[in-house]
Amino acid sequence: MTMPFAMFSTMPWWAWAGFLTFVAGMLALDLGVFNRRSHEVSVREALVWCAVWFGLAMAFNLLVSVKLGPQPALEFFTGYLVELCLSVDNVFVFIVIFQYFRVEPRYQHRVLFWGILGAVVMRAVFIFAGISLINAFHWIIYVFGAFLVYTGVKLALPKKEDGFAPEKNPLIKLARRLLPVTPQFEGGKFFVRPLGRLHATPLFIVLLVVETTDVMFALDSIPAVIAITRNEFVVFTSNIFAILGLRSLYFAVSGIMQLFRYLNLGLAVILIFVGLKMLVSHWIDIPIKLSLGVIGGVLAISVIASVLLPGAEKKH
User: Over the stretch 45-55, which tens digit does the pLDDT of each residue have?
Assistant: First the structure.
């Protein structure tokens, strides 16, 4: 059986160390300099940061092209585009979570920052475990493929309005048993010590909901990128770049939600496509350029349709 982390040998250690140092530096700069004080992020500020993160991802893509060649660079861009598309679905859920708990806009960035930091760690574990499983048991790729097709079909079907019930989350139940929770928010704090006893705040509960939500989305997004490339460095870096830009994407999309009315259908088609690609990979090798064309075309059509076609107003 393949060793779980033997895949690290395909890239020099300094490449991994350099990328992780970059990620840590950007997160420290974000929290310690640009967002030291809690404030409400405007749509304009969010769009600027979306452009910054996209620019950094494309600069890294250029570096991949120079160091590894055009094929890995194309795989990175395709994987990044898929992750970016699927991240929009995360954003819609985050909007519901913050509305449900009535989190003030100025504290939402803090929750997303720590939520995404946890997501980086969990995505790393999922990515390396997934690739290791495929390397050891090739048939796993068909399981991943079938799961993506199922998820895509489920996403395309009309959804029942069952409501949002975080109280059913087992992690939330466990947290409430282990720690008392204050009845109200305590500013931007996750924990407080009234009368010397440690209490969690509702903001910490929101963080737990965000973290567990990302775990569920990772079950879709990671197999989708593995369907594009088995290069663990490309899978990891494209995934993390998309995650790093998720906060800015949230604040941008929450201000212009109506633009993405038909995006769910586009995401469903993309998931079904990459799932089918995994299922037929033994018999048909779908070129990465064709994959990029399909994904980009579906994304463009769904956004254009959202702008041009009238849609009924939905209550949120």
Answer: 888 888 999 99
